[in-house]
Structure formats: C-alpha cells, structure tokens
Amino acid sequence: MSKVLVTESYIHDIASAIRAKNGQSASYTPSQMAAAIGSIRSAGDLSIISKSISSNGAYNASAYSADAFSGVIVNVPNTYQVADEGKVVSSGTLVAQGTLNITSNATYDTMLISQAIVSVPNSVYSLISKTISENGVYRPSSDGADAYSEVVVNVSGSGGDDANYLIAAKASSGAITDGILSSVPNSAFYENVELTGFTGLLVSAVGENAFAGCSKLSFVSIPQCKSVLTDAFQNCHILSEINLPSCENVASGAFFNCRSLSSVNIPNLNVIAADAFSGCTALTSISFPLCQTISHRGFANTALVKAEFPLVESIGQGAFMKCRSMVSVSFPNCISVWDGAFSSCYSLSFIDLPKCIVVSSSAFMYCSALKEAYLSSCGTIMAYAFAFCSSLSLISIPSCVGIHYYAFTGCSSLRSVYAPECTGVGSNAFLNCRNLSEVYFPKISRIVNNVFCSCYSLAKASFNAISYISANAFAYCSNLISLYLLGSSIAALGYANAFIGTPMSASSHTGAYGSIYVPSSLVANYKTASNWSMYSDRITAYED
Fold it and tell me: H or E segment at 141?
C-alpha cells in the first residue's frame, strides 16, 4: 500500500463535512471518521420519524433526537394536509365541502353547507367551476367564468339569507319563479339580457340596481316585497307590469326610464321618491291612495292623463314636469307645490288646490292649455309660477299676499286679477298680459319695474295704498284711461317713463288722453311733485 501525506487541515475538512451531514457538533479522530460516514442516511432511505406538535412553528430535527434522519414530517392538528384538500372548517373540525352542479336557471338551497363550488355548463364553453365563500355578485366580466352570466350568493353565517343563492345561466332564457329568496341583492341581475320575468314569492326587499338594464324583462311580481331600493329597475325598457301589493317604500330612480311600463300595482306606497317613475312614457294611469309625498321628478315625462292623490301634502320639484297628456289633477290636501312641479304639462286645463299655501317657481310654467286656477288659500306665488300659460283667463287668489317677479308673464288670455290681500307684486309680474283689462290690488304699497308693462287691454287700475311707482310700471298700456291712486299721501314717481306709451303721456301717445284720479286734497301737490309735473294735465280729483 502506498503512503499519502495527510495534513491537519485535510482531517479538519473531513470532520466538518460529517457534521454538516448528520447535524451534530461532535469531534472526530481519524479512526472514528469511517464509522461516522457510514451512519449517514442516503436519499433512498424512506424511514421517517413522525412527531405530533401542538402548535404551528419552525422546528429543528436535532431538537427531537432525529439526528440520523434528513427530514421530519410535522403534523399539527387542524392544519392543512393533503387528504384535507377541498374541506372547510366547521365548528373547529374539517368537513367535506359541498359541490353543486348547476345545469339550468333555478334557485338552489345551500343551507347545509357554508361554501359551495358552483359549476354551470355551457354548450360552447367547457365546464366552469367557481368556489364561493362570501356574499356577493359574480359576473363573467370580472372572473372570466364565461359559462354563466352571474351568480348571486348569500353564504350562511355571513349575514346572508340562509345561504340561498340564485343562478342566472348565460345560455338560458325565460322567466324565474322563486320560492326561497327573502331578498334580491344589489345588482343581482344587473344588465341581464336573457331574463324575461321574475316572480319572487318570499322576497321582501329588492336591492339597488337589482334588475337595472334587464332589456328583456317584461313583468315582475313580488307579492311580499316591502322595499324597492335605488335604481332597482331603471332602464328596463320593455317592463310593462309591476305587481307589488305590499310595498311601502320605493327609492329614487327605482323605475326610471321604464319606457313600456303601463300597469303599476303598489297600493300601500306612501312616498314617491325622486325620479321613481320618471321617463315611464307609457304610464297613463296610477293609483296611490295612501301616498302623502311626491318627491322631485317622481312622475316627470310620463303619459299620465290625470293625477289624483287624496292625501298628498307636498308635490316636489318637477314632479309631473313634461306630462304632456295630463288633463286634470286633484290634490285636495296639498299644501305646497314646488319648483316646476307641473311645468310644460301642455294639456292641463284646470287646477283647484284649496289648501295650497305656496306655489313655487315655474310650478305651472308653459301649461299652455290651463284656463282656470283656483287657489283659495294660497299666500305666495313665486317667480314664473304661471309664466306663459297662454290660455289662462281666470286666476282666483283671494288670500294671496305676495306675487313674485314674472309670476304671470306671457299669460296673454288673462283678463282680470282680484287680489284683495296682496301687499307685494314683483317686477314683470304681469308683463305682456295683453288681454288683462282690470286689476284690483287695494293693499300693495309699491308698483315696481315693468309690473304691468305691455298690458295692452288694461283700461282701469285702482290702488288704495300706493307709496311708490317705479320705471315702466305701466309702459305701453295703450288703453289705460283710468288710474286711481287713492292713498292719503302722494305716491312717489321714481321714473318719469312709468307711463310711457299710455294715454297718460302727451309725448308718446296719440288719441284720447287718460286721467289719473287722486284725492281732491292732494291734486295740487301731485301736479308739482317730482316727475308728476309732466302729467299735471292728466291729474284730476277723485270724487267718492
């Protein structure tokens, strides 16, 4: 045997390699090294030590006297094992997960399992499986599951509806009759293009956008529904029939732009929310006997022929705006009519609001067929309230105390105004009322700009308490021949052009001149007062 020179560093390297393999820290003499190397396990040795450990963590094999082995399998109770794949935890124990294979539109009950794999087959696409573990709406656009159009899920234990869920298959079409769901979640059928009808026998609430944009949905019947949330059915263009006999709340935009809706049965509704039926252009008749409030644009741009609401006290902004077929309204308990409520109702011919105290801005503007308006309790008529009601010939406002600017402008058929309690009339209030021939305002104190401007037929006007007359107040009243100013003091004439274009003005009128009647005790003072002097020849004593 040949001899080899072995250095100290060579022996040290062999010992370090042994310790690296067996995981120990022992020292070795040259004579011990052969035995140590022989005890090292090879990769093909499958003898394994199993150790049960009570908690999760990192464990060193040497700490468990596993020095002779290259690996340790650690089994921790209730943690994942290969055999546990697909199981879920229930009451601290791993149990098999339920699997449902869905083949058609229907309602499926998952009450007995807390998690479901939903598989919806399709004739074009391969079977798609989706694991659902929380409440939500699942669509192909967001999860790539092209074999179904959407999945609405309520999972047991997460605040859902007894783990019921509804499947709307993309490849299927038709109507759904459901006897399990207690609510239809938000966006449940959003823009579903196959659903033609829905009957929810136990549903008590319909969520936001639940059926919005369902282009083929034609009828809905939910007999126990109490609440319909925001935009629930908006843009369901062929929806023609709604049956909600128990519903008490319909939120804003619920049926917005349902252009084919012609039959509505919601007898217990007490509030019509904003835009609830706006744009329902086929809706010709309604009945809400318990309704007390109609919010803004509630029925705007519909085909309603008449509106009868025996309990309504407030009519919101634009509530019936552009209801072009509206002929008559009945609101015996209405207190307030807000901005634009009936504007552009071109067929409305008659109104009687016996308890109304406020008619707000533009409320009846452009109601071109309106002939008579009775407002026996009304105290205030706001700006443009009856503007351009070209057929209005009679307005009864015995209790009115204030008429705001442009309130009756363009009412070209109005013949007389009797307002015994009115104390203020705004600028341009009766501008271009061409057939207005007589006015009676015994309590107003000021006639402001253009109030009666271009009232061509106004022949007589009488005022008992006027203290000031402003610019163009009677301008171009070409037939005004009798003006009575019966107050106990001189009415200041703010602008000399107040009577321009009238028989009172020598410089701007040809033909017979009119007369300005004042108390005999004030005649001399009027004739010399500022701006009145130019009308001195028209000023004459009033003899009672």
Answer: helix 140-143
Strands 219-221 and 106-109 turn out to be unpaired
% helix / strand / coil in the chain, to the nearest 5? 10, 25, 65
CB 95 within 8 A of CB 116: no
Tell me if 475 sits within 8 A of 456, measured CB to CB: no
| Helix ranges (DSSP H) in 237-388 | none
Q: What is the sign of the dihedral through the CA atoms of 467, 472, 477 and 481?
A: positive
Task: Please determine, for residue 236, whether its predicted confidence score (pLDDT) is greater than 90.
Answer: yes
Distance CA 352, CA 329 (A): 8
Instruction: Measure Cα distances from 407 to 98, 184, 286, 323, 418 in Å.
Output: 70, 47, 30, 21, 15
Question: How far apart are the C-alpha atoms of 160 and 156, rounded to whole Å?
Answer: 6
Contact 226, 248 (CB under 8 A): yes
Residue 137 Cα distances to 229, 341, 485, 514, angstroms: 17, 38, 75, 79
Closest alpha carbon to 416 in 392, 386, 397, 394: 394
Q: Which domains does the chain have, with CATH numbers?
A: 8-75 (no CATH), 81-172 (no CATH), 177-304 (3.80.10.10)
Alpha helix positions (H), 220-261: none
3-state secondary structure of 90: strand
Q: What is the DSSP letter of 249?
A: E
More confident residue, 274 or 115: 274
Tokens read off for 19: 């310790």
| CA dist., res. 378 & res. 308, Å (int) | 20
Asked if 467 and 486 touch (Cβ cutoff 8 Å), the reply is: no
Q: Is residue 523 classed as helix, strand or coil in its secondary structure? A: helix
d(CA 392, CA 215): 43
Residue type, 170: K
Tokens of 150: 């959407």
C-alpha R_g of the chain: 44
**In terms of DSSP bridges, do strands 372-374 and 394-396 run parallel, antiparallel, or are they unpaired?**
parallel
- Could you read off the pLDDT of 472-525 as tens digits, one per residue? 999 999 999 999 999 999 999 999 899 998 888 865 555 567 889 999 999 999
Question: Beta strand pairing status for 106-109 and 164-168?
Answer: antiparallel
Q: Indicate the pairing of strand 87-90 with strand 515-519.
A: unpaired
The one-character DSSP state at 470 is -
Which residue, among 189, 204, 181, 185, has the nearest Cα to 111 in the 3D structure?
181
For residues 269 and 286, is the Cβ–Cβ distance under 8 A? no
What beta strand segments (E) does 283-415 contain? 293-294, 306-308, 314-315, 328-330, 336-337, 350-352, 358-359, 372-374, 380-381, 394-396, 402-403
pLDDT tens per residue, range 343-370: 999 999 999 999 999 999 999 999 999 9
Record the tokens describing residue 350, joined without a space: 């008659």
Output the average pLDDT for the chain.
80
Q: Go through 1-25 and write b for each residue having 16 or more CB atoms within 10 A of its CB, e for each that does not.
A: eeeeeeeeeeeeeebeebeeebeee
